[in-house]
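ingest -> fold -> write
write: protein_1
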Amino acid sequence: MKLRIPFRSLLAWPLLVAGLSVLSRAGEPAHEKPWRLFPDVPEILLYEGFENEPFIFKPDKNNGKLVADAPCAPGGHAWALANTDRDKNKDKGEKRWVMSKAELGNWRAKFPAGLDPAGITVQVFVYTDQPGYAALKCRHGSGEYEDQQSVNIVKQWTPVLFKFTEMRGNKNRPEAKQTISEMEFWFQGKPRGEYPVVLIDDIVVAHGMAPAMVLAKLKQAEKKYVEIARSQTKEGFSYTLAMQDALKSATRSAGRPRKAKTILIAPARPADSAVLKTGMAAAAQKIKAGTYNVLPLSAPDGSPAGGLQDIYGLIPYNVQKTDAEVALLVLSCQDAVAPGRTTEHLKLVIERILDAGCIPVVCLPAATTPGVDKGKVEAFNNSCNTVLGAMNVPVIDTATALKDAKNVFEGSDLNAAGLEALAQTATTALRHIEINLFGRR
């Protein structure tokens, strides 16, 4: 499928070609540090506390589920392992197994991936109503290996430590060149004929850190993480410490600061710009964020622009022309169901924005929009979240932004009330970025 660009977008090409030299980075790219969830504690390679989605575990009857009841801490969550039919002769009273699998393909901090396996540990907090054996199985491209630990403390949380140096498989041992793609947590109870109730929480994979230090370092890092982190499902937009670290690197690489508090809006429809601008001004006043200079996406002749095709063709030109420090891209359900490789083109646009030292923020469409294929929109959003998450781009969830508003649709488009609700969440996200990334209070 070839990308179709409207004729007026072609008018921007002479300016765009000239602007690409400005947008491209000068000289050789600087050596980037390996990605870490907590940049201040690079020894922590992975942490899952089941408080911020997406989780490395997928809920399924065969893979377990998220739980919030006791013995979880008040307001906290844990993961309940699923019953399995690993033992074929259950009627004969064999010991029962429970398990859950974590998929790490999209987790950015790879391991061992060049690290010495001798320094890697996996610590898991386990709650069980039966004594038994906890096992950790790690899979990589050409094999797997596992370790097993005895658990004798019941009905209270206890840490279980696995060391990569003690893991073994069929002619397979941990090596630095491997990359773990899956981890499976298994538990076998000692009483026969009954499945154990097993919960896991606070999973930490660390390298080069004494196990006794992991929790202290983690809690210190997590406190800072919680203060900065925002979730699409809770606050309506995503933001993390790792994202902030990557965005700081992008702005530094550009070589100069852009115009403070200048926001470029790329709406789903050209007419939406005016409503979003008014809504953002009202929201900024409400949260005492000062005044933002909100500029709409436009063609070289000055006419308003909007929609994915205009975003593809006009964003680089507009980023150069406006010198905006943030570009707000609003995607629609029409974009979600359109033919073509939308996420690939979106990735190219995001790269151009980041190369210019501008911060992209992407609004994903609401799958609850009437008259659209919900499955297609959800698949589109999942694909976008995967791409944008890997690029450390803040994402606004339109569905969450609209949850307290009423009568927000006109057909399958947002009406004025819907756009104002979206503008409110977008302004909150922009203010959060301004405070934490740019240090302006």
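write: protein_2
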Amino acid sequence: MVQIQLVETFEDDSLKVETKEDYFDACKAILNWRNKSINNEEEYLKIQVISELNSVFTWIGDFALKNLKTKPIIEKLTAAEMLRKNWGIDIPEWVNNDDISKYKWYKRVPVGGSRGDFVSVFSNTILGKQFTKEKFDKMDVPIIVKTLSDIKKSGFYESSTVLRILENIKNRWVNTAIKSEKKILEYFFENPESFFELTVTYK
């Protein structure tokens, strides 16, 4: 079998195509596979093309279709599919594929394994365990403030996925907070650095 994939990141057991020049090596590999597989149906060849080379992926697919008697498997693995595969969880439709590709979340090993839904696994892996708690813990304020401040400085706030997850966390904490904490939490997520200054001043 010949399998040709357009991927965001490479796996170990594949012929890797990351430059246009690698196209010729891929074509040679396809022809070699064709010759070897005549008497051996178990021969296997996986070619992975990095996502930036979409045109090269098309060329290799066309070459394989023209030169092989058995139809190759040609597939584009989106960043979301890579994340689903590597994290072992379902990825909601609202998660932005471009965000996953840009920040390469699929390269991160999920902290605590694949237990829970996407929001909980993402929170634990990308944001930190403090964001997985059911209730807001004021003892976590320094770490949470630093995380939120870093997110704003790094441009992470441009990610619709991150914004939705933070909104989810904020709502969960507001819903489980006592009345006096609710407005503070609303302010906290909008102005983490200012909130931290207030907690230092009035502690």
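write: annotation protein_2
The radius of gyration is 23 Å.
Residues 160-176 form the longest helix (17 residues).
pipeline exit 0
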